[in-house]
């Protein structure tokens, strides 16, 4: 991860997309998009007018998961509904049949470098980078951060990166989640150095603008399971 990233503000027709706030607005009013739909639209805007191939879209939107083309098509449909992009009007999202998609509308795009914020969790001596948008923590091997320890539920909690913040939420776990010794009720925005307790496991949240090197979470249940058996606090892929 480099020392700088970028902030995109794009304007087209009556719309404005703000990558920093992760928001699409029409005439100043927010329009809801799911995270995958927002990322799809942002990528097309960043790459405009190039056609982004399906394989690249799959890799960008679902880097660790295989999905069928129908899943991508549903994301495209969501974006088109949000934009009012109908067949009877000049398209905003262009389809290159059997190839991919591109952004076709007239576009004003402003790209500003911003400091990269590196975020990671310390679970025992393991450093786990938070590189995606949503990170489920739990005993389920399919969890983004797999922890097989007493008192940890299958889907215990999750961290969502939202508008530059890391937001922690308990997922109805049996033993609850605490932050700095205080039981979590609802959600909390994490700060550097916060201590998260899940059952018997203590996790430390860290963030930095210095481009700290982090470890990308692997979704390998078998290797995670073998590490999990070494004892609480080290069970991470």
Walk me through what this model shows:
This protein is an alpha+beta fold and 237 residues long. Helices cover 19% and strands 37% of the residues. The strands form 4 sheets. Strands 10-9-19-18-15-16 form a 6-stranded antiparallel sheet, with no helix packed on it. Strands 4-3-2-1-8 form a 5-stranded antiparallel sheet, with helices on one face. Strand 15 (177-179) and strand 16 (182-183) form a beta hairpin. Helix 1 (35-47) packs across helix 3. Residues 211-237 have low confidence and may be disordered.
Give the spatial strand order of the biggest sheet.
10-9-19-18-15-16
Instruction: Report how far the terminal alpha carbons are from each other.
Output: 20 Å
Number of helices: 4
* Structural class category: alpha+beta
Shape: elongated
| Unreliable parts | 211-237
Helix content bin: 10-25%
* Average residue pLDDT: 84
């Amino acid at each position: 991860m480099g020392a700088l990233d970028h902030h995109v503000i794009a304007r087209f027709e009556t719309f404005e997309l703000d990558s920093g706030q992760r928001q699409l607005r029409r005439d100043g009013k927010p329009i809801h998009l799911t995270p995958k739909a927002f990322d799809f639209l942002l990528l097309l805007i960043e790459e405009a007018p190039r056609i982004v191939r399906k394989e690249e879209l799959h890799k960008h939107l679902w880097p660790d998961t295989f999905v069928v083309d129908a899943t991508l098509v549903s994301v495209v449909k969501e974006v088109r509904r949000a934009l009012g992009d109908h067949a009877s009007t000049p398209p905003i999202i262009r389809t290159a049949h059997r190839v991919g998609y591109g952004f076709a509308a007239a576009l004003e795009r402003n790209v500003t470098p911003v400091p990269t914020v590196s975020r990671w969790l310390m679970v025992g001596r393991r450093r786990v980078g938070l590189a995606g948008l949503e990170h489920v923590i739990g005993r389920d091997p399919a969890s983004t951060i797999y922890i097989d320890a007493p008192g940890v539920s299958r889907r215990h909690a999750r961290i969502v990166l939202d508008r530059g913040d890391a937001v922690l939420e308990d997922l109805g776990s049996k033993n609850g989640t605490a932050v700095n010794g205080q039981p979590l009720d609802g959600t909390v925005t994490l700060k550097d150095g916060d201590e998260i307790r899940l059952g018997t496991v203590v996790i430390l949240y860290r963030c930095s603008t210095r481009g700290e090197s982090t470890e990308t979470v692997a979704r390998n249940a078998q290797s995670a399971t073998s590490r999990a058996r070494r004892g609480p606090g080290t069970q991470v892929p």
